[in-house]
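Title: Comparing notes on inverse folding

I've been comparing how different people in this forum approach sequence design from structure. To keep things fair, I'm posting one structure and asking everyone to reply with a full sequence. Here's the target:
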């Protein structure tokens, strides 16, 4: 586990419900001084606006995060990529990006990752994480789940991904949606190897 500033982490946002998890995660990474390489699918972009409002646009995301979470997010850097650009930096194993999270992860993108399809930059960057034996965190969201969807989670886990479903817990006594998002972002940060204070540890 390393909290050194400057760690380079890729974040993929796809069209599954839970945009709040994505922005909370990006904000937490930036606040730790990370270099965040962000890519959203078309439905991921749509999800940001549908669930968070018209100011949650990718091109203005840093300002959105500053408004929502404060100036601490300026500690990191945010680089945007186009999902169609499978030649972007994070598409290569030679690029020093140490970990990736796909949050939220649609069943479609989950299937693409599970089967190594690399059709988009998100799928390709995830494939790079798996082939290079780096950390890949997948945050799927769907309910109920079909057998192929369940199998795709198993296949991803077998390939080395950490499957971390969007399942916030209630034992912390959450009062707001932000509390639920903090819980998920904390789990994700833990999966990426960061310590965090997004929710208090269980003390028994
Ligand atoms: C408002 C909205 C909510 C959606 N929620 C989910 C969801 O929770 N899980 C899911 O797998 N797909 C969901 N979808 C469907 C995906 O967005 C769709 O399958 C899309 O093709 C996924 O593409 P992507 O993985 O490239 O983002 C939703 C679509 C919309 C418009």
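Reply #1:
Here's my take.
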């Amino acid at each position: 586990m390393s909290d050194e500033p400057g760690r380079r982490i890729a974040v993929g946002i796809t069209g599954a419900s839970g945009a709040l998890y994505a922005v909370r995660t990006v904000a937490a990474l930036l606040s730790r001084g990370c270099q965040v390489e962000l890519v959203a699918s078309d439905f991921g972009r749509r999800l940001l606006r549908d669930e968070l409002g018209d100011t949650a646009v990718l091109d203005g995301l840093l300002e959105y995060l500053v408004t929502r979470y404060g100036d601490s997010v300026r500690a990191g850097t945010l680089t945007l990529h186009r999902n169609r650009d499978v030649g972007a930096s994070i598409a290569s194993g030679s690029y020093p990006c140490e970990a990736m999270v796909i949050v939220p992860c649609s069943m479609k993108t989950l299937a693409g990752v599970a089967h190594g399809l690399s059709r988009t930059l998100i799928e390709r960057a995830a494939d790079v994480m798996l082939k290079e034996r780096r950390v890949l965190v997948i945050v799927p969201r769907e309910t109920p789940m079909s057998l192929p969807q369940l199998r795709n989670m198993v296949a991803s886990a077998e390939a080395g991904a950490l499957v971390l479903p969007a399942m916030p817990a209630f034992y912390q006594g959450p009062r707001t949606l932000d509390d639920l998002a903090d819980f998920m972002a904390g789990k994700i940060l833990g999966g990426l190897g960061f310590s965090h204070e997004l929710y208090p540890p269980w003390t028994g």
